[in-house]
Amino acid sequence: MRSVLIALCALLAAAPASARTVKVKDVPGLAAAIKAAQPGDEIVLADATYVLADKLVAHTGGTREAPITLRAEHRWKAAVRSSGQIAFEVRAPYWTIEDLDIRGICADDGQCEHAVHVVGAADGFRLIGNRLVDFNAQLKVNADEARVIPANGLVEGNELFDTHPRKTDGPVTPLDVDNGSGWVVRANQISDFRKALGAQISYGAFVKGGAVGALFERNLVVCSRHRYEPGTRIGLSFGGGGMDPALCVPHWDANTPCDPEVTNGVIRNNIIANCSDVGIYLNHASGTQVLFNTLLHTAGIDFRFASSSGEARGNLASTYIHDRDDATHTDGGNLSGDISDDALDALYKDARFGDLRLATDAAGLAKAGITGKGGDDPRVPDDFCGRKRTPPLDMGALQSSLGDCPTLK
Question: What is the rounded CA–CA span in Å between residue 249 and residue 259?
Answer without folding.
Answer: 9
